[in-house]
Write a structure and sequence with these properties.
Elements: H1 2-19, H2 23-32, H3 35-46, H4 48-65, E1 75-76, E2 82-83, E3 93-94, H5 95-103, H6 109-123, E4 124-125, E5 130-131, E6 134-135, E7 161-162, H7 163-175, H8 179-189, H9 198-204, E8 214-215, E9 225-226, H10 233-245, E10 248-251, E11 254-257, E12 267-274, E13 278-285, E14 294-299, E15 302-303, E16 308-310, E17 317-324
Parallel strand pairs: 13-17
Antiparallel strand pairs: 1-2, 3-6, 4-5, 7-8, 8-9, 10-11, 11-16, 12-13, 14-15, 14-17
Helix pairs in contact: 1-3, 1-4, 5-6, 5-7, 7-8, 7-10, 8-10
Length: about 325
């Protein structure tokens, strides 16, 4: 939650700055929002520096007290005993603390790399096709980590694959530029690959067209899917594919393309529909066999200065060419 709060503080500070970008922005707010909302936004603008200060103070605390030597800790009990530490017998390492250290953009780069390497080493079970939330699961500890211990070891949050966290782990690898790893793990948890053979179907026991909220992490039910119709992780999985790997993200009135793909991909194509009747046919080519990095972007035969494609709902079909490689 520390990493998530850092991300929220910095994002909200940026929003406050955007709201206060001069008379034009204020006039637009007056025209589109209630006066109370405008006044609140103006007051928040004054607090922008405070948000940045809080984020900086939080980051210092996270790096000072959250780092365990090879990964970030999950939490602390009220009496100061760490959770998600190498000194713990149960829950020695947790996935979310590692992935959000990366996704927040806040963690020390070397530590972030080490944390994700540790997450892969301890939490990714390739043969079983699982990405665990934590390991080992809670079982014998006399301490009370909360309701999570109410699940049997290996079930749901207690040491199973909790799919929200699994997706954030994959996205963190993509954010680090590791396209080979991101796509391999995307394929690893894809429900289709859990059900492409009879023996896999008998183990998974869930639908191949619905992302499971959780997958059991320890025998005798290891690999069995659960809560397939009761999860928001399917939306995250969809975003991971489009935004994290294919790299398409709408920012204001532009489409940003920043792929992170396997280096053996020659390229891919996307048709992006915008507005009522406008479409952008996007051709991404990877002639240099890289995992990340946009060298050139062309829109309707004209080279653009960056990876942002201006969007106009003009009812036309536009051609976009993106070449990956060294810029």
């Amino acid at each position: 939650l520390g990493w998530f709060l850092y991300s929220t503080l910095t994002a909200f500070a940026a929003l406050c700055e955007r709201v206060g970008e001069g008379e034009t922005a204020r006039r637009e707010l007056v025209e589109t929002a209630r006066r109370e909302l405008v006044e609140t936004a103006r007051r928040e603008l004054v607090e922008t520096a405070v948000y940045h200060q809080q984020a900086a103070s939080l980051l210092q605390a996270l790096e000072t007290h959250g780092w365990d030597g090879a990964w970030y800790r999950r939490a602390y009990d009220d009496d100061g005993v760490p959770l998600g530490s190498a000194q713990n017998r149960e829950c020695r390492i947790d996935a979310i603390a590692q992935s959000w250290a990366v996704l927040s953009g806040a963690a020390d780069p070397q530590r972030a790399q080490q944390a994700m390497q540790s997450a892969y080493e301890y939490l990714v079970l390739e043969k079983e096709r699982l990405i665990l939330l934590l390991t080992p699961p809670f079982d014998k500890t006399p301490r009370d980590p909360g309701y999570i211990k109410g699940y049997l070891p290996g079930i749901r949050e207690n040491g199973g694959q909790y799919s929200h966290a699994a997706i954030w782990t994959i996205w963190a690898f993509a954010r680090l530029g590791e396209g080979n790893m991101a796509h391999a793990l995307f394929d690893l948890i894809n429900p289709i690959t859990h059900t492409d053979a009879p023996e896999k179907v008998s183990r998974y026991k869930a639908e191949p067209y619905v992302l499971a909220a959780d997958v059991y992490g320890v025998p005798p039910h290891q690999g069995r899917g659960g809560w397939t119709w009761y999860t928001g992780s399917s939306g995250w999985f969809y975003r991971l594919g489009l935004e994290g790997i294919l790299g398409l993200r709408k920012v204001g009135h532009t489409l940003l393309i920043e792929p992170c793909i396997p280096q053996d991909w020659a390229g891919y194509e996307v048709v992006y529909r915008y507005g009522r009747a406008t479409s952008y046919h996007i051709h991404v080519e990877n002639p240099s066999g890289v995992q990340q990095g946009v060298a050139e972007v062309w829109l309707d035969g004209q080279r653009l200065t960056g990876p942002q494609i201006p969007l106009h709902d003009d009812g036309q079909t536009h051609q976009v060419e993106v070449f990956l490689g060294a810029n």
